[in-house]
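Technical annex, item 7. During the second reporting period the consortium partners agreed on a shared format for inverse folding records so that results from different sites could be compared directly. Each record opens with the tokenized structure and is followed by the designed sequence. A conforming record, contributed by the partner at site C, is shown below for reference.
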């Protein structure tokens, strides 16, 4: 397994006892190992993630996140001393690995009505002693935070899940790439309809594919055995890069 459940928390209050707070959400801490045998007893890095066991989308570690985090680990010399922004970070596993290998990391998720997820990201950073900035950033919204970001690398795990949000996502990615000459967007996604969709989006937004990998091609077998799906990793840049 790529991670081990470390603990369950938050006992529920009895509903029939007056004056008690509403039942707390049930959560768990999963441990994710990198390097060595990627196991509890043989690893170079461990990242602990607080998850909601009810599998709320933004508070659960999905397979795309595990694969992208492993890629960051294997490419760690490239990430060291880089400025990294993770979009739709959720439980933030890829961004945390980047921070642990020396990147300057900003973790972002939806800005509006998303306090629980953003606070969970902050809690996870504290748990892992990771010095990351946490910012509310909604794709397609041109609020102040997006103008302050100048990443070398943009990360996004499973951010292609809602077709209604694709244009907002790619508008944000394209802006960040244009705002940061030489930057690259690295994303993992479930390949449900072939590569045609992401090719269409890249052409529409003036982007190009630098690298396309089967997500399982570089994943250690101990992690691959616990995951399912046809997951791909793609690196994307501007079609016509602006000079630095």
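Designed sequence (site C submission):
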């Amino acid at each position: 397994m790529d991670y081990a459940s470390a603990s369950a928390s938050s006992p529920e209050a009895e509903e029939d006892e007056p004056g008690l707070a509403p039942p707390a959400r049930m959560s768990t801490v999963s441990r994710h190992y990198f390097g060595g045998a990627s196991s509890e007893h043989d690893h170079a890095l461990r990242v602990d993630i607080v998850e909601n066991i009810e599998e709320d989308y933004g508070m659960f570690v999905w397979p795309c996140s595990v694969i992208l985090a492993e890629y960051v680990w294997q490419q760690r010399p490239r990430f060291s001393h880089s400025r990294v922004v993770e979009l739709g970070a959720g439980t933030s596993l890829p961004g945390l690995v980047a921070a642990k290998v020396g990147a300057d990391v900003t973790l972002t998720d939806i800005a509006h009505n998303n306090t629980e997820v953003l606070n969970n990201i902050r809690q996870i950073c504290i748990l892992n002693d990771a010095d990351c900035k946490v910012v509310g950033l909604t794709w397609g919204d041109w609020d102040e935070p997006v103008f302050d970001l100048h990443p070398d690398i943009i990360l996004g795990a499973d951010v292609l899940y809602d077709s209604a949000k694709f244009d907002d996502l790619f508008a944000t990615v394209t802006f960040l790439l244009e705002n940061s000459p030489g930057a690259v967007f690295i994303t993992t996604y479930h390949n449900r309809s072939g590569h045609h969709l992401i090719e269409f989006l890249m052409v529409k937004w003036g982007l190009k594919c630098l690298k396309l990998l089967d997500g399982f091609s570089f994943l250690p077998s101990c992690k691959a055995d616990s995951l399912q799906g046809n997951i791909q990793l793609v690196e994307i840049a501007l079609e016509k890069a602006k000079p630095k």
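Confidence is low (pLDDT under 50) at residues 5-23. The chain is about 30% helix and 25% strand. All partners now use this format for quarterly exchanges.
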